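Hi Q.,

Before the meeting this afternoon, I wanted you to have the uracil prediction in hand. No need to reply - just skim if you have a minute. The sequence and ligand are here:
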Amino acid sequence: MDAVTLVRHPLVQHKLSLMRDKACSTKEFRELLSEISLFLGYEVTRDLNLVTREIETPLAKMEAPFIEGKKLVFAPVLRAGLGFLDGLLTLVPSARVAHIGLYRNPDTLQAVEYFFKAPDDLSGRLVIIVDPMLATGNSACAAVQLVKEKGAKEIRFVSLLAAPEGIEKLRTTHPHVRIWTAAIDDHLNDHGYIVPGLGDAGDRIYGTK
Ligand code: URA
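Predicted structure with the ligand bound:
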């Protein structure tokens, strides 16, 4: 079982390249992120357990496979993680949602919590934390810690882009959390931005700069 799954599908890589281009408009960026979330969601749910139930087709009875009852929780890290949410809920409409509000202190680059609302007991649920940028890993680690405090034991992390530094930090702090991402970029700059990256994901999704 790989600690980090790189989603290399050509459509994902193509769409990501369009997003990286600074000429990509806010509208296009948001649409592309939503499209990529379908592929990442497909990959991160690839090994969900199935159980069979008897159903009756127009022709015969059969044992048909269904996803095991355990409810999924998607946990977007605000605000950029919200860009993944619609796509993921299209794939799994019955999933619950945990909102994790974290902002990055620009001086220390540490994650500061400002909002957290999750289903009451996360034990027994698969929690999939989503944040387009796994940069320093500070927000990712804080998000994992918050869902662990609510009982989560099975946790996965999905990003669009990751920096080697962020992967290393998340892997060493929370070794049981597997990571899915569409690309691992070169490095972080002095401001904690991924290079070459795509800039500030939140600003690009919401057109705030
Ligand atoms: N957050 C972003 O939005 N972009 C980065 O490059 C790093 C963190």
